[in-house]
Design goal:
- Strand 8, helix 8 and strand 9 form a beta-alpha-beta unit.
- The protein has a single domain, classed as Creatine Kinase, Chain A, domain 2 (2-Layer Sandwich), CATH 3.30.590.
- The protein starts with 14 loop residues before the first strand and ends in a 13-residue tail after the last helix.
- It has 14 helices and 13 strands.
- The protein is of the alpha+beta class and 388 residues long.
- 47% of the residues lie in helices and 15% in strands.
- Helix 1 crosses helix 2, helix 5 packs across helix 9 and helix 9 crosses helix 11.
- The radius of gyration is 20 Å and the shape is globular.
- The strands form four sheets. Strands 1, 2, 3, 4, 5, 10 and 11 form a seven-stranded antiparallel beta sheet that branches. The protein has a two-stranded antiparallel ribbon with strand order 6-7. Strands 8-9 form a two-stranded parallel ribbon.
Length: 388
């Protein structure tokens, strides 16, 4: 028998959200190593009641974590409060912030590591791969009652991850070049040996056995080293969806959280009614992830083992119809309705490319992202503030 991994039971359909932000110099819009100054300033002045602000691997990053939330409205409240406080701190320190999967023109070689034993371990073990991790994501924790429920919902969520990735995709640029992808962050991250598409499991005991082998072989130091697109987080009692790029506006972030919340609620009801969520074919999950990484909401997805393909947009419309009653029940129907508008042309990768097409300026792209973070409104390229 494998060594048991205790799973902390979550009290109902809870939510927790982590958002990784870019710290920018307000004059150049380049990444800026401002995390230590920012945290010092907030340590003296912060009045956060719920969310927390934490350092990340590099000093040009900061992570915002909500408290355990019981609905999407609480997620919005926590993030809104935290974003407001860091904007005030940024004004005092000459910093601004952007929320997107990659920076448009910064070089990862210039990044300064945040002083932490954990971060030193990550860099020492993974070397060049970790040095490239100047990338920024959205992680959503969905409360689970036990480990077997988490594995069942992991199997249910994996086929849906291309939708989450396509809607969040906000990293078409890398080191000043358009990569031709909509989520360059995804390809950078999955180069890590324990990141990307996860192995699949039938039961919690299967996961425990896998974790035991990885630990015994020193492939991982702890479960924190499993940076899969979707993973169980037994300490928090959640299933954590990690595939998404960071989204530029709070409203887009909350809309995607609402979609995940409603989708998992529907799948939980199906499981209670007797539906079994078998592990999906790994090749299909990987293929559809690639298609979402390359083409975003314009992708065609493989929907069965015979190779049938359907447009992601059409499949998303069906998902939204199925999730609508659950969103109504969970109090997030208004947020869910924003998803359709995002798919109809509002995704960040398109907006960034439109700004660049008209300005030929990576700085203008970053200025547009900084403006979106502050205004909570998608930018129209020819209405940018002056100074780009």
């Amino acid at each position: 028998m494998p060594t048991p991994i205790p799973f902390t039971r979550s009290p109902g359909r809870t939510l927790g959200v982590e958002v990784e932000l870019q710290i920018l110099d307000w004059k150049t819009h380049d990444l800026c190593s401002g995390a230590r100054r920012l945290l010092h300033y907030l340590g003296k002045s912060s009045k956060l009641e719920h969310a927390s602000i934490k350092p990340e691997l590099f000093q040009s990053m900061i992570e915002i974590n909500t408290a355990v939330c019981h609905d999407v409205a609480e997620v919005r409240r926590d993030l809104l409060n935290a974003f407001a406080q860091i904007r005030v701190a940024g004004e005092a320190l000459g910093l601004e912030f952007a929320c997107a999967g990659t920076h448009a023109f910064a070089s990862h070689e210039d990044r300064v590591v945040y002083p932490s034993e954990r971060f030193r371990y990550v860099l020492e073990r993974n070397r060049h791969l970790a040095r490239r991790l100047s990338i920024f994501g959205l992680h959503v924790h969905l409360g689970m009652p036990d480990g077997d429920a988490a594995i069942a919902m992991m199997n249910a969520v994996l086929p849906a991850t291309p939708f989450f990735l396509a809607l969040s995709a906000s990293s078409p640029f890398w080191r000043g070049e358009d990569t031709g992808l909509v989520s360059t962050r995804t390809t950078v991250f999955e180069s890590m040996p324990t990141a990307g598409t996860p192995p699949t499991f039938g039961t919690w005991a299967d996961f425990e056995r896998h974790a035991e082998v990885l630990t015994a072989s020193r492939s991982i130091d702890s479960l924190k080293d499993l940076w899969w697109d979707v993973r169980p987080s037994p300490v928090y009692g959640t299933l954590e969806v990690r595939i998404c790029d960071a989204l530029p506006t709070l409203s887009e972030t909350v809309a995607l959280v609402a979609l995940m919340h409603a989708y998992v609620a529907r799948c939980e009801d199906m499981r209670r009614a007797g539906h079994e969520f078998a592990p999906p074919p790994t090749w299909l999950v990987r293929e559809n992830k690639w298609r979402a990484t390359r083409w975003g909401v314009d992708a065609e997805l493989v929907v069965d083992q015979r190779g049938t393909v359907r447009k992601l947009r059409a499949e998303l419309e069906r998902m939204l119809v199925e999730c609508e009653p659950y969103a109504q029940r969970l109090g997030c129907a208004a947020e869910l309705r924003r998803i359709a508008a995002m798919a109809d042309g509002g995704c960040s990768y398109r907006r960034q490319r439109e700004v660049y097409r008209h300005t030929r300026s990576g700085a203008a792209v970053m200025q547009s992202l900084a403006h979106e973070f502050v205004s909570d409104e998608p930018v129209v390229w020819d209405r940018l503030p002056s100074g780009a």
